[in-house]
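tool_call: predict_structure(chain=1)
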Amino acid sequence: MPVVLTVDARSGVPIYQQIVEQVKRSTALGVLQAGEQLPTVKQLALDLTINPNTVARAYRDLERDGVIETAPGRGSFVKGDGAAASTKLAARDVARRAMESAVREAKAMGLSRADVRTVTDTVLDRWFPEE
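tool_result:
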């Protein structure tokens, strides 16, 4: 099944970062498997109607983060060796970004640090009752 990525130019999140986050999320959720090939830079740029340099930057960041590897002339693939580690890192990165968004929203609504900590502890207790 081909990888389906989308971007929203009006979201306020840089497009390259949207691509990075989607690939990391897909890796963390197992939608993208170790060894699976990603679209070429040119093909993804055409599919998303964006500049190829934007896709190239996203792929460079993904490679730097150990999520993908690129073989010249062959393409970019989800990293096979250490896939479990990169999956865990990808999951942590996705969770961190979601939490940053939630904390940013709480702060914008006027909640104090103590209020956010209380809400966070309540949510953690609900989802991780045994720990």
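agent: The domain at 15-127 is CATH 1.10.10.10 (Arc Repressor Mutant, subunit A). Proceeding to next step.
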